[in-house]
């Protein structure tokens, strides 16, 4: 068996030269497109790195500011006490009765004014027990409370629930 001599025919020479030229042109186009895509990805990567560095710098600045604010907040003093009786309508307390009871509780907690917020927060349970273990008398009735909500900042906000009336 013998291989036919295709290299001498012009149609086959044209076909093979077209295949080789097409492969070379395809390879060049591939390299150009691949290079353009890689260049764009490198640009995106550099942008992402710069954005990450900027975000990390901002994060560290915010962390430092937060720590400074925490230190300043620990030095803050209690300025006011707000008390709300949540279920006063159940026991039909009038506004004057409610005001008198709230003022009595405020008198008991008045020593907390001008104390540091951190110290008051550390003794939160003691504050709750102080209110819950004492009865507040009004019109020959004793009212006992349970502390439902307690928020301590420069203003102490206390939400009370009437537990028992004697």
Account of the protein in words:
The protein is of the alpha+beta class. The chain folds into two domains: 6-74; 80-165, no CATH class. Helix content is 57%, strand content 19%. The chain has four helices and four strands, in the order αβαααβββ. Strands 1-4-3-2 form a four-stranded mixed beta sheet. A hairpin with a 2-residue loop joins β3 (141-152) and β4. The longest helix is centred in the first third of the chain and has 65 residues, at 10-74. The protein is rod-shaped, with a radius of gyration of 40 Å. 7% of the residues are buried. The mean pLDDT is 89.
Features:
single chain, 166 residues, alpha+beta, 2 domains, four-stranded mixed sheet, 4 helices, 4 strands, rod-shaped
Ranges where pLDDT stays below 50 over 5 or more residues in a row are: none
Strand order of the largest sheet: 1-4-3-2
Helix-residue proportion:
55-70%
- Number of distinct helices: 4
The computed structural class is alpha+beta
Separation, N- and C-terminal Cα atoms? 121 Å
Tally of individual domains: 2
The largest β sheet comes out as: 4 strands, mixed
The percent range for strand residues is: 15-25%
Helix-strand pattern, N to C?
Answer: HEHHHEEE
Average pLDDT: 89
Q: What overall form do the CA principal axes indicate? A: rod-shaped
Number of strands: 4
Radius of gyration: 40 Å
In short:
InterPro entries: YtrI, YtrI_C. By secondary structure, the chain is of the alpha+beta class. 57% of the residues lie in helices and 19% in strands.
